[in-house]
Amino acid sequence: MERQRIRWGILSTGRIAQVFAQSLATLPEAQLQAVGSRTAAAAEAFGTRFNVPRRHASYAALAHDAEVDVIYIGTPHSLHAENCLLCLEAGKAVLCEKPFTINAAEAERVIQFARQQQVFLMEAMWTRFLPAVVQARAWLANGMIGEPRLLLADFGFRAEFDPKSRLFAPALGGGALLDVGIYPLALASMIFGPPQRLTSMAHLGATGVDEQCGVILGYPNGQLAVLAAANRTDTPKEATIIGTAGRIKLHAAFFKATQVTLMRSGQPELTVHAPYESFGYQHEAAEVMACLRAGRLESEIMPLDESLQLMRTMDEIRRQWGLRYPQEMA
Asked: Which of 105, 209, 239, 329 is 20 to 30 Å from the Cα of 68, by its Cα?
């Protein structure tokens, strides 16, 4: 018997929302039912491009659309908490783009509200659900590299400086850390859990946000994660997990990896090719739909407590730099 389709709404019409719409189209059991924007014109244009039947000229109208089951939020970081609360209050399940919020205080408020309302919520950490990363997790769980001891990971790209861009604007949560640093941090979290200690350094650019940063995380049994992020420096974008009996390499760009290699002493390398359709966002959407069908309020693969811990880690990193966003200074 064919399962009933789950009806999606997309809140935002920007680039990331377009990528999500294209990825969602690869899932037969997902129906892109509605889109919400701040203007009717943007909603109409998005709806026409992606064949979305219901088009709303406000986020609130989308949140209260009775023909929508779950909403993907793809707005700038600074709006995530506000948008999540709007949708959750309307009883809609939510998949919110990473980073979850601007800081841990916002994340805690959103998570508490979702739990009070008994409504599903998940951070859209799409990399975690890609087939190559699923394979890496399986190798780790099966002890294929022994005890993981060290993670080396970086994500940096060079953007042209524009103080009004979300990449550089403090009011929008600009900087490399929240935008792309979250990827290596989430990978470290997946492998080692929450850090026991951390040290970090950054270059703060003309607008006061981080244009490149380095982070070292330490864990209770001596494991280390050595991470880097940048939005003005192009880096290899690789990730290597090193254990007592071998290594796992997520090939560049690791955050959208389509192949992963297992290396063990005295044995031939094993490379698994794991391509996917479209941009790969459908894998996180499939997890959301599986959770909804099972009646779960959060994902076991990307749990809310982990999303909160990641925000706390990034708060501490920024504290060491002296970087606060305008909305944190009120």
From this structure: 105
* pTM score over 0.85: yes
Residue 1 has pLDDT above 70, yes or no: no
In 188-321 the beta strands, taken as DSSP E runs, fall at 197-204, 210-218, 224-230, 239-243, 246-250, 259-263, 270-273
Q: Mind listing the pLDDT tens digit for each residue in 272-293?
A: 999 999 999 999 999 999 999 9
DSSP structural state of residue 326: G
Residue 40 near residue 48, CB atoms below 8 Å:
no
How many secondary structure helices (H) and strands (E) does the chain include?
10, 14
* pLDDT tens-digit series, residues 263-272: 999 999 999 9
According to DSSP, the β-strands at 148-156 and 197-204 are: unpaired
Name the nearest CA neighbour of 191 among 234, 227, 228, 235: 227
**Candidate list 92, 98, 237, 249, residue with the active-site label:** 98
> Is there a catalytic annotation at residue 98?
yes
Q: What does the DSSP assignment read for 212-237?
A: EEEEEEE-TTS-EEEEEEESBS----
Angle, helices 304-321/104-117, rounded to nearest 10 degrees:
160
pLDDT band at 179 (very low <50, low <70, confident <90, very high): very high
Write phi, then psi, for 27 (nearest 5 degrees). Answer: -105, 110
- Taking the C-alpha atoms of residue 78 and residue 92, their distance in angstroms, rounded to an integer, is 20
How far apart are the C-alpha atoms of 23 and 282, rounded to whole Å?
Answer: 5
Rg (CA), the chain: 20
Rounded Cα distance between 113 and 86, Å, is: 11
Q: Name the residue among 177, 251, 174, 159 with its Cα closest to residue 214.
A: 177
Is 308's pLDDT higher than 50? yes
DSSP code for 162: -
As a whole number of Å, the end-to-end CA separation of the chain is 55
Eight-state DSSP code of residue 25 = T
Residue in 68, 117, 127 with CA at minimum distance from that of residue 97: 127
- Reported as a pLDDT band with limits 50, 70 and 90, residue 2 is low
